[in-house]
What we know:
The structure holds 3 protein chains of 3 kinds.
Chain A: E1 5-13, E2 19-28, E3 33-38, H1 44-51, E4 62-68, E5 71-72, H2 78-84, E6 85-88, H3 92-95, H4 101-111, H5 116-129, H6 145-157, E7 163-167, H7 175-186, E8 191-195, H8 199-205, E9 208-213, E10 216-222, H9 223-230
Parallel strand pairs in A: 3-8, 3-9, 6-7, 7-8
Antiparallel strand pairs in A: 1-2, 1-4, 4-5, 9-10
Chain B: H1 8-18, H2 27-52, H3 57-70, E1 75-78, E2 81-83, H4 88-95, H5 97-114, H6 123-145, H7 151-176, H8 181-212, H9 225-246, H10 253-256, H11 259-267, H12 288-319
Antiparallel strand pairs in B: 1-2
Chain C: H1 2-10, H2 15-18, H3 21-36, H4 42-59, H5 64-71, H6 75-87, H7 91-113, H8 117-126, H9 131-162, H10 167-202, H11 219-242
Helix pairs in contact in C: 3-7, 3-11, 4-7, 4-11, 5-7, 6-7, 8-9, 9-10
Amino acid sequence: MQPLIEVRNLRYRYEDGTVALNGVDFHLDPGESVALLGANGSGKTTFVMHLNGLLGADGGGGQGSVEVCGMPVDKKNLAAIRRKIGMVFQDSESQLFMPTVLEDVAFGPLNLGLDAATATERARAALDRVGMAGATARAPYHLSAGEKKRVAIAGILAMEPEILVLDEPTTFLDPPGRRSLADLLQNLPQAKILVTHDTSFARSICTRAVFFRNGTVQASGSIGDVVDQFGWDLTPAGNASGR
Amino acid sequence: MPLSGTNPQLVLLWERTVHIPDGYLSTAVWAGMDVLAAPAVIMIARQAQRRFDDARVPLLGVMGAFVFAAQMINFPAGVGTSAHLLGGALLAFTLGAPAATVVMSAIIVIQALVFQDGGVLVLGANVLNMAVVGVWAGYLPFRFLGATRWRNLAIFAGGALSVLISAICALAELRLSGVPAKALGVSAVVFLISAPVEGAITLAVIKALEAIRPGFVHQPEPGRRFHASLLAVGLTAVFLAAVGVLFSSPAPDGIEKLGLVSGIAARVKALVVTPFSGYETSFLASGWMRKTSAGLAGLALIYGVCLAIGRVAAARKRRV
Amino acid sequence: MHHVVLERWSRRSSPMHRSDPRAKIVDLLVFLVVLATAHRGLPLIAAALGALLCCAIVWSRLPLGGALARAAVVLPFSLAFAAVCWLAGDPARGVHLAVKSYLSALAVLLVVSTTPLPILLRGLEALGAPRFLLMVAQFLYRYLFVISEEAQHMAKAAQSRGATAAGMLARAARFQAAAGALAVLFARSYGRAAEIHRAMLARGFQGHFETVATLRFRKADLALAIAGSLGPVALRFALERCC
Lengths: 243, 320, 243
């Protein structure tokens, strides 16, 4: 089975010289859900931005190879790769930039070259999928944090990707919001990469975890093991934490 | 907006004469301004789009929202009063003048529609005053002196001029529409105070921005100087005309009461140059020469000095 | 707040709300021109046009008193200006501009309260206004509330820090603090714009915004455009003739 994502020895240095990634290897298999754990500044977000070419596609600042669905991430593959990987960013307010929910979710399909009618259809279907079918005419500003996150996910689903990347999705959510987001994600068949500090949330979605420290991968394995290894949960190791 | 506190009358006079509402200008004036503004705005919008394509739209929109939001932050400006940033010059120094024009135009449109602050028929006049003339008048000192050791002065002057020139144009349009000069006199006094305040605020914010990230502040390009000189001359001609109109009434009491202005007038009468000299209309009664020289002197002086210093400084740099 | 109220009103339902924005824009422009160019017999014409507006407000199922009150935002200045004109020896002009500015504001308020702003902007574009400028206005409006909220928090924080100190030195310090706060707000806004751009790229943005929603001009809209234009013109014509 060909991995969906294959990263070899990825290195990246910012303009001011700080090393953000220091030789990262990573792979993602079809249907897999992986959590990226690690302290702030350990390189998790910088890493995922290489997966859809937001960083690194112009060749500046980095080395190593990133392949998504068999395609190397460079300028000529960007459109195709961004079709395969959908990224949900931490701040939904910046992600939902169109005046209405429907226009925002249709943004992706329109960029894929679909005509207005098909794009609208896809948008409605995606909104239905995330349980926001009635919100088409609403302005994103008026939605709750949980609703915004769902619409953001709908915006990605409307492009029919194979991989979902979510960067700190639970940051602004209250417990019921987290629970319904977990339910939603559990029922989506796409492979997922979850960058998060929310360990129990990660445990409910992901089977595998990768631990970042100082721009390198320190450990990769079952999520329970990695969390326990680094003490990355409030519940001490060995206690009943549901996993 | 800009001045609040103990003088609500002055506040409102200030605010409204910069955003002219519907009903204040005569048909000839607002229609004429719309005709003038339309090609200017379309041209600038096209230029902005060509340089940036749609990718810059979010940045310009968000920075427009920033200017709105910036009005909530109070700057102490004197006893019991506080001022707010207007933003034309700041936008020009950080985004460049064409982008600043587009952002200011969008702000004016939103203010007119959503807040009914400024009229719809007079959009042409308001956009010309604030987004075109005001922005470029504020940008030019920076463009000439931004790379020299008069940089801070240029930033301050830019902020002040962007407000002052917009105000003068607005007052001139009102005067041309027949509003009695006495009614405009008070506004003019208010502008003369708030222009340097805008300059001070702009300078302080630019300095603070450079401390966060120097890249935020546009670096004036040394090339394409010819264009800018033409623009400076063109703008100066517009200002002279506007000021000429403004000062053409026999009794601008408010302005005269500022001895400062009369003092300048006495000293620099010789600098008077105006495109109106051949015209004979009811506005341009005798005595306008005296009044005109006051405003002209100040403006011509500032631009001439900036131009000269800029040329000398740049020439010196080249030699080194 | 003013714009919040108008936005809420714009989401109601009425024949006016359902009309194509282009018809409303045309009617607005005709009304404004008829009003602006009226000189002879202005009091009567203004009264008639005012009555026409009130009927339109009621037809749009908007609160009449509320609308009349909100349009009065223009009045404080206009009345002051009118007073100054009166003192300067031109009372008629003062009355004229006060009346005209109020009725103009009321007319604009009517259109904005019956048309969600993004749709209004689209109508302007369809009538030939420069697209780039309108898209900037659309984004401005989208993030107006968001960034204003951020500014409010910062203003409160700044106030609580320097409130008690007095004197020149303290004023200078507060000036600097305000400049610093503005610079931070600027940087945050700039950062948000970068986030938005990343989110756009991640969903396949190719450099040009596509539209999904289209405006449809129906017979009812044509009727509104014609009636709404002829109404003010006929009123003025008639009143100027007979009075």
